[in-house]
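$ ./design --mode recover --in tokens.txt
reading tokens...
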């Protein structure tokens, strides 16, 4: 059993070394499966790629994937499709979700009968420290997702997710978005097609250093919801 942990990065030369060191140490102690860390860089214009390559030499089980075009969804699709792993996962480089949620996320897929696992900042048991602005946008967005699709999962956008190889093989080719809406599209289509989603509360501490442009991302997300809704109406999946 091989578990892939993809770390999507865009201009993250500063935080990357400490995050990979923490994650590597954590997995060594707490992951009972074989694992690989893949740093997935898109078009960073700082030293991220060089730092990632150095880390891949320094640490065992760490490799690098590079793409020329931006977009976190694009990086995840490519890295997951090319990986040999049985379970594919990703987490944000800032490790905002506490790592102790990682083993249960993986166990839910390996032995719990779930196909997709997601970290959630919006369940009762989640502990979330973030700005009022991000909290409000997140709550409104997730209500919109539910209003559009009557979905049950609680948090589409948490950067902490896992999926089985089998579910990924069917779902990834159906996802059009290459950016931030990728996650929502994966979950909405997945739930519609009957894949079981494990919704796990996480302990989240916001890292204020963000790559998200809030206004343009919100517009893209709403356009994405409308696009996928139209496809549902046409029976596209
Ligand atoms: N590969 C890749 N990763 C990205 C891109 N944009 C953002 N990321 C990564 O996505 C993760 C989440 O970004 P972050 O700025 O922390 O988002 P926030 O926590 O929602 O503010 C980080 O690991 C980023 O480096 C991109 O275009 N390509
Ligand atoms: Mg972040």
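writing sequence...
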């Amino acid at each position: 059993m091989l578990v892939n942990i993809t770390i999507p990065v865009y201009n993250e030369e500063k935080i990357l070394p400490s995050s990979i060191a923490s994650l590597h140490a954590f997995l060594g102690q707490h992951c009972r499966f074989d694992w690989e860390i893949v740093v997935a860089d898109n078009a960073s214009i700082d030293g991220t790629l060089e730092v990632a390559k150095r880390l891949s030499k320094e640490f065992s089980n760490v490799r690098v994937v590079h793409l020329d075009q931006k977009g976190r969804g694009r990086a995840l699709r490519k890295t997951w499709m090319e990986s040999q792993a049985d379970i594919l996962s990703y987490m944000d480089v800032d490790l905002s979700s506490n790592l102790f949620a990682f083993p249960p996320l993986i166990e839910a897929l390996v032995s719990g009968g779930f196909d997709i696992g997601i970290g959630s900042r919006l369940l009762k048991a989640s502990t979330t420290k973030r700005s009022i602005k991000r909290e409000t946008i997140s709550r409104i967005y997730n209500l919109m997702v539910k209003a559009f699709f009557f979905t049950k999962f609680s948090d589409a956008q948490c950067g902490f997710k896992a999926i089985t190889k089998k579910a990924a093989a069917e779902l990834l080719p159906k996802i059009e978005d290459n950016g931030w809406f990728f996650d929502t599209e994966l979950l909405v289509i997945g739930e519609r097609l009957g894949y079981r989603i494990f919704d796990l509360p996480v302990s989240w501490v916001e890292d204020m250093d963000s790559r998200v442009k809030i206004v343009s991302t919100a517009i893209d997300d709403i356009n994405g919801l409308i696009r996928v809704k139209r496809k549902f109406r046409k029976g596209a999946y």
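exit 0
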